[in-house]
Amino acid sequence: DKDASGSYSTSFSSVPVQRNYRTNIYGNILTSDADYNVEITPGFYGEVNSEDMLKDALTNGGKFTLLSDMTWPEGFSIPEGKNVEIDLNDNTLTIDTENKVKGNLSINNGNVVVDIEEDGNLLPAFTAYNGAQVDLDNANINLAGKNALVVVANSEVAATINVNKTTITGASGSVTHGISMPFGAKDIKINITEST
């Protein structure tokens, strides 16, 4: 498409990309004299079947599907500005360390086991910070001991927690006990639909 300045813009979507392989795009896009700008948008979209691939996907953000049961890597949190969408694909994601969510995290279609060992303290799988968003959809969450799924940090910008068609079980026994917030916290948005 030619714009007002005489420049052409072409977008390619649905280009299959496989890690560690060269991707070629064929056609007549380079047949005229022109300056070309190639922009590669970071983000991981695909299937994950190893801890290294899971680390890469969490680091870069994007949408991905687990091919087997996995454990959340220690020390991997969601940075501000990153969007991570995990389709569990009926697999189990085990979380045994505390993690920070400063961007957006979506977990759906499977099982999550939160089992963080500590001296009787309430420990969250995720702590949501300024403006973070955590979405749980069509998931089964099992909280061991005094673990919580999400604790909302007392912050200036509202964090949002959306829980849809999700069951949270464990010592506390309900969705509202799986999500905790500090005393006096303000502007926290928690939306719970069709969940127990």
Question: What does this entry look like structurally?
Answer:
This protein has 196 residues and is mainly beta. 7% of the residues lie in helices and 38% in strands. The protein contains two helices and 14 strands. The strands form two sheets. Strands 1, 2, 3, 4, 5, 7, 9, 11, 12 and 14 form a ten-stranded parallel β-sheet that branches. The chain has a four-stranded parallel β-sheet with strand order 6-8-10-13. Residues 173-177 have low confidence and may be disordered.
What's the helical proportion of residues? under 10%
Rg on CA atoms, Å: 20 Å
Major sheet characteristics:
10 strands, parallel
Overall body shape: elongated
If you average the pLDDT, what whole number results?
77
Ranges with pLDDT <50 over ≥5 residues?
173-177
Order of helices and strands: EHEEEEEEEEEEEHEE
Query: How many beta-strand segments?
Result: 14
Classify the beta-strand content into a percent band. 35-45%
Q: Number of helical segments?
A: 2
Concise overview:
This protein has 196 residues and is mainly β.
Features:
10-stranded parallel beta sheet, 14 strands, 7% helix, single chain, 196 residues, 4-stranded parallel beta sheet, mainly beta
